[in-house]
Amino acid sequence: MLPFVDGFYLPGSYPHNYNVGDQLSVKVNSLTSIDTEIPYQYYSLPFCKPLEGVKDCAENLGELLMGDRIETSPYRFNMYTNETEIFLCNSSPLSGDQFKILKERIDEMYQINLNLDNLPAIRYMKKDNFVLRWTGYPVGIKIQDTYFLFNHLMFKVLVHKYEETHVAGVIGTGDGAELITTNEKSEGRPRGYMVVGFEVIPCSFQHDVNLIDKLKMYDKYSAPIKCDPNTVSMPLKEGQPVSFSYEVIFEESDIKWPSRWDAYLKMEGAKVHWFSILNSLMVITFLAGIVLVIFLRTIRRDLAKYEELDKEAQAQMNEELSGWKLVVGDVFRAPDNAEFLCVMVADGFRILGMAVATIFFAALGFMSPASRGALLTGMLMFYMFLGVLAGYVAVWLTRTITCDSCGWYSVSWKVACFFPGVAFIILTTLNSLLWESHSTGAIPITTFIVLFLLWFCISVPLTLLGGRLGTGATRLEYPVRTNQIPREIPAPRFPSWALVLGAGTLPFGTLFIELFFIMSSIWLGRVYYVFGFLFVVVILLVVVCAEVSLVLTYMNLCVEDWRWWWKSFFASGSVALYIFLYSINYLIFDLKSLSGPVSAFLYLGYSLFMVIAIMLATGAIGFLTSFLFVHRLFSSVKID
């Protein structure tokens, strides 16, 4: 008989139980800077390397695309063993190139990122009675014309006693971990500790050359090292070596293992997020009132009058009436580039489905920051498998709009290649700049091959399968016949496209507050984890886009303009224009320190890629809503 046990699981992570004296290994990640947004490999600078050599740690697809390069480091601790004045190494004399690149990294405010037991090193700073939190620490600092390097690190490791409960746990050291259960065999095992915090204080210390002459890695430096973050004493000079050392202090903490990420995910500005949602609800209520007026008063009144008349009176009324009733013979006339419109709508629904699914699972905790790259990997997987939906929608729409039952294979291929092709062009252009800069942000050739295989072997077949299924779907029959000769459209009083582009301000109004936090997470290195708020905002955005497009389509038909197809797409899709303008505003006013044309070009390139995806997703919502609205509206009109 199997025993019943209680347990918990934090998605993306699991507890390590270390005994006293077990070895803990610190890993290093790419150097990052909010001034350049170009990551570099840690060992591109003359830092100490492990005795056994540098080894790459396992990286998932999302980590590689984000520019993370996790490697082993020489920093090693023993669990619950305090150590001071640990000598690491003495570098070779700095060459001219090394001295120059160190100065550049300090000027560009590059941060060094360390990880212990999957926790990033965090640094606390006091400024104006406020405590600031930063992940990582700077390479060095410039005072007047002198550059100082932070060559001594003081680590504080917060640990919590392993609590023996009826929970399956993990025991092991480093990355090797073994699943153990709470049975009789584990009762005699000494209770260990779990790492629940990792803090670092960087210092600049001038080592005595005579004292380090014969020291080897991990030997004890014979003089005391006072780590004072407010003073610096290790100036960088060309032709002179740099010495490195560290110390570590262990401190027992009340923080429990499931709560160890709270310091990184501490939500600030919760009231602002609620204000964002309230703002969105106000916009939705306003638009819903307009839609209600259209449906309950205008349309129903017109239809009631129209249906009460006999046939002769209807014919006479048709000559006198103006508005949407006069375009009954042209409203379903196929638009220009109908197939391309169907492709864009289909890819938009795939992107929308990817976004909703990713944010939903992230809100449930399945894509926690403890699993680096999980969010991006999840987005790619959802996008690929939703190819079935994209192919189905594209073929069904094409058959409905163009009345063409053939050519499903061609339409499916276009859907499979359209957005991935746009992404390939943009990312390859940006990648060439990163390659030229020798940045870890450049996607490796092997990763490009993996992405191509995922697209060709999974995404394309699934899109073709969806297209094939779409050929068997019931085509939506139009309720009215289309005239052979198009009706002349009266001259508009004002440009209709100006109204379409202006309509994007309403969806943008529901999004812009949350957009600030997302941009800060991407470009300022802040952790974004309020996916519950984001999920609600996305749902509200979908509703606003649908309402905006419906109102604009009705206004278009009321001025006897039957060319509503593309306008319904861009009425909601034009929100992307305002997001791109906001991105430029963010670049000018919030990323003032961004240096160099390459960094600005990378920022604008990634922003362009983002707004194209948003345009397709929001445009698809608006188009389908308008299409179903027009079909329902003219299904209510009696036509001989």
Automatic annotation (TrEMBL):
Any Gene Ontology biological process: protein localization to membrane
Domain of life, source organism: Eukaryota
Localization annotation: Endosome membrane; Golgi apparatus membrane
The protein's name in its UniProt record: Transmembrane 9 superfamily member
Topological type in the membrane: Multi-pass membrane protein
Alphabetically ordered keywords of this record: Endosome, Golgi apparatus, Membrane, Signal, Transmembrane, Transmembrane helix
Record-stated family: Belongs to the nonaspanin (TM9SF) (TC 9.A.2) family.
GO cellular component entries: endosome membrane; Golgi membrane
Transmembrane parts of this sequence: 274-296, 349-368, 374-395, 415-435, 441-465, 497-523, 529-557, 569-589, 601-630
InterPro entries reported for this sequence: EMP70 (IPR004240)
